[in-house]
Design brief:
Number of helices: 2
Structural class: mainly beta
Strand content: 35-45%
Helix content: under 10%
Radius of gyration: 19 Å
Distance between the termini: 49 Å
Length: 251
């Protein structure tokens, strides 16, 4: 298991509003990967968030000096059936700052699961202090009353940064929920959000069919076209396509 599991520090946050009618989440899904296949940041089979998240010197997360960036939400440990989870009340934006740089370079996918008390949209940001770059994910539609499973493919140009003698890596100092592309006036966040099974893995079966073939052909320099579902299309296809890693409109 990757050593980055220890290096997660959390932002301390202010006020909490109680939601009396919030749904109670069920036990999170069991991870299908063996422990040696994944890098765990936090998982539902661990005791509590605060026990697991420690820095390189063994200090628990709740003993670290708080960093406040003006957000008003609150996080806490919570139970989801028989599983541990992080509860977020009244999300505006939540930056989680790693005590030390987290290196995801051994893994292709960032996996996370959410249970929300109301339908909502969410995007996530990964930031690297050096060389000062960030990656903002797609906007995901999260459905209330069920576990929403998200796998973010890190194998893309906008999330491959140079570090350590210019070797491409996925190095992260801050992981942030919200505060980027979701319009809160039209798509407000759910009052309560549960988050667990934050891991990295290399299981390409989570990709839609055709996506890996598309990437391989792009790397080989082939001008092969795909629709937005990752399906290969012919040269006579009309509409928006992906070719050589770029979106193009074919008329």
């Amino acid at each position: 298991m990757n050593s980055f599991t220890k290096f997660f520090s959390v932002v301390a946050l202010a006020t909490i509003a109680t939601v009396s009618n919030a749904q109670t989440p069920t036990t999170p899904p069991t991870l299908k990967w063996a422990p040696e296949e994944i890098g765990v940041i936090y998982a539902a089979d661990q005791d509590t968030y605060w026990d697991v998240m420690r820095d390189g010197d063994g200090n628990p997360a709740n003993s670290w000096s708080p960093v406040t960036w003006g957000q008003t939400c609150v996080i806490s440990d919570d139970e989801c059936g028989d599983g541990a989870a992080i509860r977020i009340d009244n999300l505006d934006f939540l930056p989680m700052q790693f005590k030390k740089t987290m290196d995801f370079s051994d893994y292709r996918f960032f996996h996370i699961e959410y249970w929300v008390s109301a339908d909502m949209q969410l995007d996530m940001t990964f930031q690297n202090w050096w060389p000062g770059e960030k990656f903002v994910s797609s906007i995901y539609d999260l459905k209330a009353g069920q576990w929403n499973v998200i796998d973010i493919d890190l194998d893309q140009e906008s999330f491959t940064w140079s570090k350590k003698k210019e070797i491409p890596q996925h190095c992260v100092n801050v992981f942030k929920l919200g505060g980027e592309n979701v319009d809160q006036e039209t798509h407000p966040y759910a009052p309560v959000i549960w988050m667990t099974n934050i891991i990295c893995h290399n299981d390409a079966s989570v990709l839609p069919a055709g996506i890996d073939e598309m990437k391989a052909n792009r790397q080989n320099g082939k001008n092969i076209r795909y629709n937005l579902a990752g399906q290969r299309v012919g040269n006579d296809y009309k509409g928006l396509v992906l070719m050589n890693g770029k979106k193009m409109v074919m008329k």
